[in-house]
Design a protein that fits this description.
This protein has one helix and twelve strands; from the N terminus they run ββαββββββββββ. The protein has 129 residues and is mostly beta strands.
Amino acid sequence: GDGIVTNDAGTMRHTTAATFSTYFNANAFSAPTALSLSGTTTLTPSAAQSIYQRVTVASGSQTLRVAITNLIAGQYVIIDKTSSANSLTIDWNNNSAVTSQGITLGSSVEFAIGLFNGSSFSFVETVKF
């Protein structure tokens, strides 16, 4: 029964709180299938979705490239490196041009959290296990 009044193209509408919550959370977060990396792999988040991505680094040192073309400021990526050997470099590109080397996760199981500021990522945390 509880609701929220919204402006839909100039028409005021009553929307239930449950529907409003579903609308806002539907594209807020994505957790795609785990990746096994061998070579450079590009991860392309959908517009308006932050992402949690599990990765296993098959061997040596691999690169995960996050495509930022569709992102908006405030979105984040969580990269969860599940393998306890090998290393992973996370960088990002904009319209296919690599714009930065972001962070390297070493030979431990770790994860990195990157916050998108509108043009690049600020990696705010890495945790080693």
